[in-house]
TrEMBL record:
GO biological process terms, semicolon-separated: glycerol-3-phosphate metabolic process
Annotated Alpha-glycerophosphate oxidase C-terminal domain residues: 424-547
Cofactor field: FAD
Record flagged with keyword Phosphoprotein: no
Organism: Herbiconiux sp. A18JL235
Family, per entry: Belongs to the FAD-dependent glycerol-3-phosphate dehydrogenase family.
InterPro entries: DAO_C, DAO_C_sf, FAD-dep_OxRdtase, FAD/NAD-bd_sf, G3P_DH_FAD-dep
UniProt GO molecular function: glycerol-3-phosphate dehydrogenase (quinone) activity
Protein name, entry field: Glycerol-3-phosphate dehydrogenase/oxidase
Keywords: FAD, Flavoprotein, Oxidoreductase
């Protein structure tokens, strides 16, 4: 990629100019970011580096669920389920701008199925011959699930109904359904932006917290860690008292680069597709349909951001290879939809987005993928050949428990530093969740207080999109020297708003379309939108025609290869150059 003066980033310079820190966190997925925020709140001098964009690896490939993991009960992971349910309820309070309650319905086609096989699965963690769970087994599980959620009734208890009421609520369900069980979990509408909120929370604590994306750990030189800026290719060193590896499914590969051979990880691949299918969207009746398929894999179908998310697979994966949603997996997803909604037709042209990622699971030998523990642990060792630096490696972890995990990892780090916790994150609202209005009257009041310059309709859109951080977006729009105007190709966004997003640690065009917004996720990224966003991104960062051509080519290839979105990289830009 062509480089220029604009590639000399202030966040990288802040690290290079002061290459000593107490803690270096390698890996800016949700768990690394959560730990970064927690340590920053304690006043620890902490640096976070991420080889790609924030939350662009495993954290970008989730099912968008904040859930207790009802099926983990069968694995005997009671501690994890209890923590997950409590953290789900907590995130509904701390991040209400992005985390929303989601009614989840299990269609049940038998009464006693699975009663005999469940104990064997519990004891052996082998899948054996898959069998759908019957009503009795599901009822027992949901009673246990509800028992972990006794904190003031954040979400309602589960409900069981028979065939008649089930079909009245979900008339497109298979007609042989006997019962449905409905309980509540939560969905995170825009996980990448929630992760970015955590980054901003950390940086707001002061200059002792520093971070840079597109910086990777490539080796060790005694005590220092050797880092490489992937934009310029330049390397530099950082020395820390504690090195924390939170690179998820790539933990072993990172340790190998740092000079230590480990075999902690054994992740599995999970893929999803996003459908523009109004009939399926309506059939979900505003909630998730969740069940176990005949092959033992968990299936979810639910409305999200105006589309329908369908997932997921659970396949062995090699973290050294890119994770892709294959055509075989697409066929599998279509079969799943037909399994519960037999009269609804789903076709490939309805797929607006596809994605895949590797779960950061521990090594599991011959344990069936679906039974691999979703819990986490922390491995401690000396850092390489150093006699003074300690390394912590995170094994496992998931979106739902990131706050509790970060608290645990931060506590271990504080102990190594000889420090005590001074700030609790237990009840600390996240980013745009601070002061977020949660009733219609409160929303109206917030809009009146903050929307004088942009008007009520636009202010409501920004509040829904960014939480109370919308106030910062509004201030940027109002202060912008250029006259703000709706995008010609996507009037739900504006030119100054895109300028604001480009200032949020946005290094590449792909960051803008995939993680600073949900434009690609919902299928809004056609050629005209891609062209207009490219020009706005180039203007915001002062890219040369050559850099813009590189950015367009890189983004177009990423969109095609990983997400099934086809746009042309070449385009006549506003400046008249042909890229």
């Amino acid at each position: 990629m062509s480089t220029s003066q604009t590639d000399i980033r202030s966040d990288v310079q802040a690290i290079r100019s002061n290459p000593r820190t107490q803690v270096l966190i390698i890996g800016g997925g949700i768990n690394g970011i959560g730990t970064f925020r927690d340590l920053a709140l304690q006043g620890v001098d902490v640096v976070l580096v991420e080889r790609g964009d924030y939350a662009s690896g495993a954290s970008s490939a989730s099912s968008h669920m904040i859930h207790g993991g009802v099926r983990y009960l069968e694995n005997g992971e009671f501690r994890l389920v209890k923590e997950s349910v409590q953290e789900r309820n907590r995130l509904l309070r701390l991040a209400p701008h992005y985390v929303k309650p989601l009614p989840t319905t299990i269609p049940i086609f038998s009464t006693f199925s699975g009663i005999l096989s469940a104990p064997l699965r519990f004891l052996t963690h082998k899948s054996g011959k898959p069998k759908e769970r019957g009503a009795l087994l599901i009822k027992v599980g949901l009673l246990g699930y509800d028992s972990f959620s006794r904190d003031g009734g954040t979400v309602p208890r589960h409900k069981f109904v028979g065939r008649k009421k089930s079909l009245a609520k979900l008339p497109k369900l298979r007609p042989d359904v006997k019962y449905t069980a409905t309980y509540y979990d939560a969905a995170v509408e825009n996980p990448e932006r929630l992760a970015l909120d955590l980054v901003q929370d950390a940086l707001a604590t002061g200059p002792h917290a520093r971070t840079a994306n597109y910086v990777e750990a490539v080796g060790a030189n005694g005590d220092p860690v050797v880092l490489r800026d992937t934009v310029t290719g330049e390397t530099f060193e950082v020395t820390a008292e504690v090195v924390v590896n939170t690179t998820g499914p790539w933990t072993d590969l990172t340790n190998a680069a740092l000079g230590e051979a480990t075999r902690f990880m054994g992740g599995t691949k999970g893929s999803h597709i996003v459908l523009d299918n109004p009939e399926l969207y309506e059939a979900c009746a505003g909630g998730e349909v969740f069940f176990e398929n005949n092959d033992g894999r968990i299936v979810l179908i639910y409305p999200l951001n105006g589309r329908v998310l369908v997932g997921t697979t659970d396949l062995e994966a090699d973290p050294s290879e890119p994770a892709l949603c294959t055509e075989e997996e697409v066929d599998y997803f279509f079969e799943l939809v037909g399994h519960v909604f037999p009269t609804i037709t789903v076709e490939r042209p309805q797929i607006v987005y596809r994605y895949s990622g590797i779960r950061p699971l521990p090594g599991h030998g011959d344990t069936a993928p679906g039974f691999v523990s979703r819990d986490y642990r922390i491995e401690q060792a000396s850092f390489g050949s150093s006699k003074t630096v300690t390394q912590l490696s995170l094994v496992g972890g998931k979106w739902t428990t990131f706050r509790a995990l970060a608290e645990h990892l931060a506590n271990d780090t504080l102990a190594l530093l000889g420090r005590s916790r001074t700030v609790s994150t237990t009840d600390l609202a996240i980013g745009g969740g601070v002061g977020f209005p949660q009733t219609p009257a409160a929303v109206t009041n917030w809009v009146k207080a903050n929307g004088a310059d942009l008007g009520e309709e636009r202010t409501r859109i920004l509040l829904a999109r960014y939480g109370t951080n919308a106030a910062k977006v509004i201030a940027h729009i109002v202060a912008a020297e250029e006259t703000d105007a709706p995008l010609a190709t996507l009037p739900g966004y504006s030119t100054a708003e895109i300028g604001y997003l480009m200032g949020e640690h946005t290094v590449h065009l792909s960051d803008l379309v995939l993680r600073r917004s949900i434009i690609a996720f919902v299928g809004s990224l056609d050629q005209a939108v891609f062209d207009e966003l490219s020009e706005l991104a180039a203007a915001a960062h002062g890219w040369s025609p050559e850099r813009l051509a590189d950015e367009r080519a890189q983004a177009a290839e990423n969109l095609r290869f990983f997400h099934g979105i086809v746009v042309e990289a070449s385009n006549k830009t506003a400046a008249g150059a042909v890229n």
